[in-house]
Amino acid sequence: MRILWIGNYTSQSSYANQARLVVPRLIDYGHQVAVVEIGAEINTPRQVGGVLILPTFYDRVGNDCIAIHAKRFNAHAVITCFDTWAADENVYKHLNWIAWTPVDHIPLPPLVSQRIQHAKIIAPMSRFGVEVVKEALPDASIHYIPCSYDPSVWHPIDYTVRLAPNQAFPQLPDNAFLVTFVGVNDSIPSRKSIPEILAAWKLFSSRHDDVYLYLHTHPLGNLSISPTGGVDVLRIIQTLRINPSTIIMPDPYDYSTGIPQSRLRQIAHSTDVLISPSKGEGFGLVPLEFQACGVPTIVNNFSAQPELCFDGWLVDGEMTWTWQNATWQTPGIASILDALENVYAERNTERAIQRRLNVARRALSYTIDNVFSRYWIPAISKIAELALTIPSNHRLDSHHQQPSSIDLFHSANNANHPFSADYPSPHQSSKGHHETYIT
Predict the structure, then answer these.
(1) What is the residue range of 185's domain?
(2) pTM for the complete prediction?
(3) What is the CATH number of the domain that holds 47?
(4) How far apart are CA 328 and CA 340, in angstroms?
(5) Does any domain span residue 140?
(6) Do 246 and 178 sit in the same domain of this protein?
(7) Of 140, 207, 231, 384, which sees the most CB atoms within 10 A?
(8) pLDDT averaged over consecutive 10-residue blocks of the chain (439 residues)?
(9) Collapsing DSSP states into helix, strand and coil, what is residue 249?
(10) Strands annotated E in 263-342
(11) Domain for residue 130, yes or no?
């Protein structure tokens, strides 16, 4: 089967991380897969790790080029991996569209519902998302497909202990209490709850002189991801009068150009708790990856987060109405503080050891091989059934096409294709995975 994957692939985003795990396995499973990479600056086809990467045109998520890419590639199915409110239903409703999608609101936002109802298969990334979609679209074909992680990258050194924090950050004392936040700073208000975390940290760090917070984010927001950027982290720290010596941040250049996952794993191994109470989360990949390393989490008791909190702390909050005409939950500062105090009081106890063991074991259900065999293979079988009904007008009969500049997007199986030597058909390969990371 020929599959067109729409989403990030070479960037540092979580969606790109997932694509680099799933797409090579689809190819290894016998399918031909090409990726239309959204948000990329390179505007020519290229090969990355044996995968054919096609560019978008002018629309940021490719609404103006997906139909022609699907036709030129002779795609039997199109899989999207991005927020579906950005998809143009007038394009996708004519395709065998499988929407692998995050759902992070209650109820399903009207714009999302309007778009996603045209998908042949809706594949929420969380069980929470499955229930929200079922309520809004009871007649839809819904298949749960969770995100996954690579256990060769994310794994504990020891199930019962963490490394001394000064192995990750030499400036810290070896008995420091290290809290880690990993999240993209791309929205105002902050979906990742950066101001709420810092407000709780102000109170917490004022009570304890051995605590440190690592903020793996950009201090001024990721302008390449969002045109408005995010919150001014340094301004918040200054306004709240947080002791700057308790805050650690990566070099902005290193962060922007890509910090290896191996470095983040080292930080995870030295972390007492991950703090990640997002206002809304379609899955929550970072909490999963840190728990795979044996690190418990503090997350918001909302959206997909509770189902991925294996033995950690859920914080309460209040409903927040968003621009999508649905609700998130803003985590309570007092609730975040209580969770931090509970983690601090529990450290170096038998319960803390058992908690680290519990989260690492439960994370194993989400390894890429487990998820691919249990969820992706059955879904692909369903997609193959749909492919039998693909409209004939969405196939390319190359013998009736006049050569033009658009021909570089032609299926590489066409021997007459002028670019076939430069842009060969995707071949079996699961190598060449990238290791930089933002979420």
Answers:
(1) 165-366
(2) 0.87
(3) 3.40.50.2000
(4) 22
(5) yes
(6) yes
(7) 231
(8) 95 91 96 92 87 92 94 95 94 95 98 96 98 98 97 88 89 95 93 98 98 94 62 96 97 87 95 98 97 97 98 97 97 98 96 95 97 95 75 38 33 32 35 37
(9) coil
(10) 273-276, 297-300, 313-315, 317-321, 327-331
(11) yes
